[in-house]
């Protein structure tokens, strides 16, 4: 592709993303490239690189366009991005060429923007804090509440590209052998510092086409997600429930910790997600998992009340901890989305807690960095359920820095993982719990 055609495709992809504001950007990008198979690997990377760079600067680019009195369009954003990166106006005009795959010439209004911003920089001291930090206005106070003075450092780490973390499946191999097997295929992984099963690669590498991935020796899983499984402290004889199992990311890690013994029930309300677990379980050689689709009026949960040793509630959440991977998500999220999630999380917690046996434990986890979804949810749950208490994890799989903790909040800035939260809640044994008088 010519540089003009790459720019044209980037503008087309931004337009497709704008037309599907509720859809994750990477899902839009996948279908965009699937429909344009003539765009080869190198061009695809260049186009995605340009689009993701614009998404990471969306509010600041928009602020400059508004300041120039121009409309915020994909073309104008792309031109503004180039000029603020120091591209000369002449070269930008050449890129906006006419032709089959090119974007077409700059309009007079676009030329005015390029002229006005020549020599400028993306950041500006007059920008409101939410614009400078690339956040929707409503979200800023929530994050200030969570992080206080470290907010800027936390958000800056959340804007960096993520590492690619793998979990070694110790049912099939060990960390060193998996690392060597990847090395033989040209992928040089290092051991992750916190998870005992983690390997880390830098950049988007073709892991899924390697032999260790295909034969189930490794899974793609962020180190933070591995630590959520670790804090469960499951052992081979237990009955374990993964209440929001999705496609089984954490179920797989739990099955591995249980040496493929005991019993795991993996539940979800999404059949498609649960179906997605089948192939992964088979590839990993896991056979102690029963899948169950949760449905309204279902007797399944009632029959199993107070019967599980461990219950994991990996709740649906804002995903704010995964912004490194989904830079578009920080702008797509609305206040209403958050309010709805908070209600859903507390309902799920109440339902899942009825399945924990006396003396058993429930781990509440999210990939959110917002206090409202994390510690505040736990506090509200404990206020509703006097028969539960926060307890230190007894897991030996946690690193020294987290050993014996009852609650952790991981962030890219502090831990080089995605943002993850987990809290360990124990149902008091019946003798210890005095029912509240009515
Ligand atoms: C964070 S994802 C789970 C990811 C999964 N545990 C993993 O590690 O790959 C949250 C899951 O909760 C499920 N979910 C949403 N509402 C639910 C409900 N009321 N009960 C149970 N699961 C629910 C969603 O379908 C989604 O798969």
TrEMBL record:
One of its GO terms (biological process) is RNA methylation. Pfam families: Methyltr_RsmB-F, RsmF-B_ferredox. CDD domains: AdoMet_MTases. One of its GO terms (molecular function) is RNA binding. Residues 154-428 form the SAM-dependent MTase RsmB/NOP-type domain. S-adenosyl-L-methionine binds at residues 268, 314. The active site is at residue 367. Keywords: Methyltransferase, RNA-binding, S-adenosyl-L-methionine, Transferase. InterPro entries: MeTrfase_RsmB-F_NOP2_cat, MeTrfase_RsmB-F_NOP2_dom, RCMT, RsmB-like_ferredoxin, RsmB/NOL1/NOP2-like_CS, SAM-dependent_MTases_sf. PANTHER family: NOP2 YEAST -RELATED NOL1/NOP2/FMU SUN DOMAIN-CONTAINING, RIBOSOMAL RNA SMALL SUBUNIT METHYLTRANSFERASE B-RELATED. Belongs to the class I-like SAM-binding methyltransferase superfamily. RsmB/NOP family. This is rRNA cytosine-C5-methylase.
């Amino acid at each position: 592709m010519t540089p003009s055609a790459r720019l044209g495709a980037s503008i087309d992809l931004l337009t497709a993303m704008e037309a599907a504001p509720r859809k994750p950007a990477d899902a839009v990008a996948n279908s965009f490239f699937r429909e344009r198979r003539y765009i080869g690997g190198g061009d695809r990377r260049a186009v995605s690189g340009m689009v993701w760079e614009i998404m990471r600067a969306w509010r600041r680019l928009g602020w400059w366009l508004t300041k120039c009195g121009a409309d915020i369009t994909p073309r104008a954003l792309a031109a503004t991005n180039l000029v603020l990166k120091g591209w000369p106006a002449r070269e930008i005009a050449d890129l906006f060429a006419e032709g089959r795959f090119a974007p077409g010439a700059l309009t007079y209004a676009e030329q005015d923007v390029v002229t006005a911003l020549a020599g400028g920089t993306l950041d500006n001291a007059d920008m409101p804090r939410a614009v400078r930090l690339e956040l929707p206005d409503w979200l800023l106070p929530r994050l200030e509440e969570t992080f206080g003075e470290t907010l800027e450092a936390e958000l800056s780490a959340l804007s960096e590209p993520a590492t690619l973390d793998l979990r070694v499946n110790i049912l099939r191999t060990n960390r060193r052998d998996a690392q060597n097997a990847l090395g033989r295929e040209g992928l040089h992984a290092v051991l992750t510092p916190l998870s005992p099963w983690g390997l880390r690669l830098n950049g988007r590498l073709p892991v899924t086409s390697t032999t260790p991935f295909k034969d189930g020796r490794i899974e793609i899983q962020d180190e933070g997600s591995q630590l959520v499984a670790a804090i469960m402290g499951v052992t081979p004889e237990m009955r374990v429930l993964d209440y929001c199992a999705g496609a089984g990311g954490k179920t797989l890690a739990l099955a591995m910790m249980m040496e493929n013994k005991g019993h795991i029930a993996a539940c979800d309300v999404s059949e498609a997600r649960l179906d997605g677990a089948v192939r992964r379980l088979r590839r990993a050689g896991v056979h102690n998992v029963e899948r169950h689709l949760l449905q309204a009026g279902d007797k399944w949960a009632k029959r199993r009340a107070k019967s599980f040793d461990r219950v994991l509630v990996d709740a649906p959440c804002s995903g704010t901890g995964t912004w490194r991977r989904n830079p578009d998500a920080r702008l797509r999220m609305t206040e209403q989305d958050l309010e709805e999630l908070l209600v859903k999380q507390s309902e799920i917690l109440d339902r899942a807690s009825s399945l924990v046996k006396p003396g058993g434990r429930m781990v509440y986890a999210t990939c959110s960095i917002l206090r409202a979804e994390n510690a505040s949810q736990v506090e509200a749950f404990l206020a509703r359920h006097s028969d539960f208490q926060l307890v230190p994890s007894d897991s030996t799989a946690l690193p020294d820095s987290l050993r014996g903790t009852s609650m952790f909040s991981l962030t890219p800035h502090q831990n080089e993982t995605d943002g993850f939260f987990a809290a360990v809640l124990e149902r008091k044994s019946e003798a210890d719990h005095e029912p509240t008088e009515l």
